[in-house]
Amino acid sequence: MIPCLLTFDVEDWFQVENLRAVFSPACWETIPRRVAESTRVILRLLAESEIRSTFFILGWVAEREPELVREIAKGGHEIASHGYGHVLPMQLTPVQFRDDVIRARKVLEDVSGREIVGYRAPSFSIDRERLAILAGCGFRYDSSRHPFSIHDRYARLGNLGPPVVPGLYRLDGRMVELELPVERMGVLALPVSGGGYFRLYPAALFRKLVSRAIAHRGYYVMYLHSWEFDPAQPRVHGAGLARSVRHYINLSRTLSRMRELIAMLKRQGACFATAREFIEGVLPSEAMLRERAPCAESSASSA
Ligand SMILES: [Zn+2]
Fold it and tell me: Hey, what domains does the chain have and what are their CATH numbers?
């Protein structure tokens, strides 16, 4: 059986970094939300495919759509954190970052009744200092390492030492890093984990790269966003050509391509799991329900 982790970042279409020049956080409240319906498309797909996944949910969304979070949890999926306000962690001071992740986790835990142990940074924007903050706050894993060096926002975490298995790193014995895969074709390193690349590449090429990633790693991790399942979302101008293409390209094909990918993974013997289940399976000593570190209060409330 091949462990396959389908993960989803739950955020609304207007909250993404590619459209930040058009929609500042100050105006989010005035824009009709579409995130619940787009996420329910994913939930229906997973239910019909009998797949459980990990959802990295924005705290801002969880506050406004608590029923959606409960639906995700009820479906047997893992609830994890995508931070609160989708500000890139590398644009936050360490103190601001700590407050952001603690605020988001409290919302998610209050709404879902589940313990939150996983985190993914918006736009994979993270560094070692912020990973240490996550560990200090009691998170048990991060999945923000995306080693695609061409992209202008993806963090460079440097050498994390030898992996436990390819793409999975133990960080100072307290936390683990689950990397998103890339595949090398000659001098090119091609992301094969989803997002805009899933919509941009020809579908057959993407599936071929996924098969190669599985052959190299023995498992597969991918990510998509809620808004990628919403082809009817409004089209806006002003974000710039490259950012608009990244956001809007082939949105109408996400769902059908995902069905095809799931069918291919099942033919190859996929065993679909949450990120937490996979990590605990590889590292059974890393019981993730361990008592939380004492810094679970925000710096604002402890000041
Ligand atoms: Zn995001």
Answer: 2-302 (3.20.20.370)
